[in-house]
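Notes to self after the Tuesday call (sharing in case useful).
The group wants a holo model before anyone commits to mutagenesis around the pocket. I volunteered. Ligand is zinc ion. Logging inputs and output together so the record is complete.
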Amino acid sequence: MLQHRCLNHSAREAVARCPECRRYFCRECVTEHDGRAICSACLARLSRVTERQPLLLGWLTTPMAVALGLTVAWLFFYGVGRVLVKIPAEWHEGTVWEKLGTDG
Ligand SMILES: [Zn+2]
Ligand SMILES: [Zn+2]
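Result:
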């Protein structure tokens, strides 16, 4: 039987294998994370990665981002509204249809 030893404690018998780095560790060197026993080095690396996602989500839900989105939406509908106001005026005058008719 091949006995694995902890990477950090060569005197201790390994009880868990880190799924990230595939190395063996004793109970003291692994931490439960997402239902897996991960070594402290990989846990630090994973926590750094996962910390970035809340930051991005936090920026998206930030009041400033919401205000920016509302401003863009308001400008968009304001611009569309101005165009829509102009179009029916020409249609009511019939100039668009007359031009189409005479050219053909
Ligand atoms: Zn690891
Ligand atoms: Zn250890």
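Two things stood out.
Helices lie at 40-60, 63-93, 95-103.
Residues 6, 8-9, 12, 25-26, 28-29 surround zinc ion (ligand 2) (CB under 6 Å).
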